[in-house]
Amino acid sequence: MIKGIKHIIFDLGGVLINLDYQLTEKAFAALGLKDFNAIYTQLKQDTLFDDWETGRIDRGQFLSAMKASVGLVLTDEQITAAWNAMLLDFPLRRLQILQQLRLHYDLILLSNTNEIHEDAFNDILYKAHGIPNIGVFFDKVYLSHRVGMRKPDAEIFQRILDDLGLKPEQTLFIDDTPQHIAGAKALGIQTIYLEKDMTIEEHIFKPIDRN
């Protein structure tokens, strides 16, 4: 048990599911797009990805915008596969940790994500572990594209506190992005920053050595 904590909010990417952003870059390069990072940066400035992650545009609009930007003749399926290439696996130990923690804490999932990735990570979970969706491990799930808000904005953290009647000092948030941690801290939420090369199974919820 974690002293004083009753509720734990988990990030998804990089905390529960392993990610490799370079695989998406390489996948687009294999399709003929050699400057994906430059296009990605420009599209971020044009708010495409913010709109995508907060549900202001749908799958079709996102794919159309991507096709218009890359300057190549690509199918929806090719873009979707390249976009999903960054999503790797859910280590079994992490899922077991969630099951164990849920016996003692309220568990909440908070992820900046999108419609295409939601389909993909649930498919990964099902194929590897026979589990239909990540929501089965949590009391409540907040996906940015569904709720219209995203980290690190204070409003998404306040929404969770208000919806569930949580006290920030009794709530722990675990994330691998510094600005997201800062957003939660600003509301008095307890935080753990999962730094590069850290994992929840090796550095936070380690088995107790009873020897």
What is the H-and-E element order? Answer: EHHHHHHEHEHHEHEH
**Gross CATH architecture of the largest domain:** 3-Layer(aba) Sandwich
Largest sheet: 5 strands, parallel
- Give the CATH topology of the largest domain: Rossmann fold
Distance between the termini: 19 Å
Would you count the extended β strands for me? 5
Number of domains: 2
Strand content: 5-15%
- The pLDDT mean sits at 94
The named CATH superfamily of the largest domain: HAD superfamily/HAD-like
**Helical residue percent band:** 40-55%
Secondary-structure content class: alpha/beta
Poorly predicted runs are: none
Number of helices: 11
Radius of gyration: 18 Å
Sheet with most strands: strand arrangement: 3-2-1-4-5
Quaternary structure state of the chains depicted: single chain
CATH class of the largest domain reads Alpha Beta
Please, could you describe this protein's structure?
47% of the residues lie in helices and 11% in strands. By secondary structure, the chain is of the alpha/beta class. The protein has two domains: 7-17 and 89-203, HAD superfamily/HAD-like (Rossmann fold, 3-Layer(aba) Sandwich); 21-84, DNA polymerase, domain 1. Strand 4, helix 10 and strand 5 form a beta-alpha-beta unit. The two termini are 19 Å apart. The model has no long low-confidence stretch (mean pLDDT 94).
Blueprint (SSEs and pairs):
Elements: E1 7-10, H1 21-30, H2 36-45, H3 48-53, H4 59-70, H5 76-84, H6 92-101, E2 106-111, H7 115-129, E3 140-143, H8 144-147, H9 154-164, E4 171-175, H10 178-185, E5 190-193, H11 200-203
Parallel strand pairs: 1-2, 1-4, 2-3, 4-5
Helix pairs in contact: 1-5
